[in-house]
Write a structure and sequence with these properties.
It holds the Pfam family Methyltransf_25. Residues 53-141 form the Methyltransferase domain. GO terms for molecular function: methyltransferase activity. InterPro entries: Methyltransf_25, Methyltransf_Superfamily, SAM-dependent_MTases_sf. The chain is of the alpha/beta class. The protein is 34% helix and 30% strand. The chain has helices spanning 5-24, 33-46, 60-67, 79-88, 126-136, 173-183; strands at 50-54, 71-76, 94-96, 109-115, 137-148, 152-159, 162-170, 186-193, 204-210. The strands form 2 sheets. A 7-stranded mixed sheet has the order 3-2-1-4-5-9-8, with helices on both faces. Strands 6-7 form a two-stranded antiparallel ribbon. Strand 4 (109-115), helix 5 (126-136) and strand 5 form a beta-alpha-beta unit. The chain starts with a helix and ends in a 5-residue tail after the last strand. 40% of the residues are buried.
């Protein structure tokens, strides 16, 4: 089956920017109290069990969650990002893979992190990702996703010092809630905050959702 053009474009874009992306975002987590708070709450709520950082990029959050005590691994569409992640975090596992078809058994994850990794998928295809997340999360398991709030598609032609071609979707909070609920998750919390720092120009949202124990 031929993959959608947006998947190929996203992979190529992140392969292109992998090294500079990792360098420019280095230390960014230390500057965001809200990001650390949400990741800390996620780690506490997940507890024991395998956690997937899905769309992990260069592994900066995978490494952070590991320091918080989670049994975590990363998956990313971009081989270039995975190469950087493996080099930066040699003690952790990183795989190349698609969030739409994860190489994981049903119910394999106690927790799933989708940190700004839904944003390159067009809205009509997001239910497919949500259904796949629901499949791989164990009953009682937790999902945390973060994304830019809005109602527009931005075509990126230059990012992180490179010429690229990829779309980034800003998403309405209610739309994300509905997509996750329709997939079978129960929404547990929603936090929307104002933009911070040089990298953000729109409100940012965090949504946690749990897969019911009885499905």
């Amino acid at each position: 089956m031929t993959e959608p053009v947006y998947v190929s474009e996203t992979r190529t874009a992140y392969d292109t920017v992998a090294e500079s992306y990792a360098e420019m975002l280095r230390g960014l987590l230390e500057e965001s109290t809200w990001d650390r708070a949400m990741l800390g709450a996620f780690a506490e709520l997940v507890g024991d069990g395998l956690v997937g950082d899905l769309g992990c990029g260069p592994g900066r959050l995978t490494g952070y969650l590991a320091k918080l005590g989670l049994d975590v691994f990363g998956v990313d569409l971009s081989p270039g990002m995975v190469e950087v992640a493996r080099r930066t975090h040699p003690g952790l596992r990183f795989d190349v893979g698609s969030m739409a078809a994860l190489d994981l058994p049903d119910g394999a994850l106690a927790g799933a992190l989708a940190w700004y990794s839904l944003i390159h998928t067009p809205r009509p295809d997001l239910p497919v990702l949500a259904a796949e997340l629901h499949r791989v999360v164990a009953p009682g398991g937790l999902l945390l996703t973060a994304f830019q709030v809005g109602d527009e598609v931005r075509h990126l032609e230059h990012a992180y010092g490179h010429d690229i071609s990829a779309d980034a979707h800003r998403l309405p909070v209610d739309f994300v809630r509905d997509v996750l609920s329709d997939a079978g998750f129960v929404i547990q919390s929603v936090l929307v905050r104002e933009p911070e720092g040089d990298f953000e120009s729109t409100p940012q949202a965090y949504v946690t959702a749990r897969k019911p124990r009885s499905v």
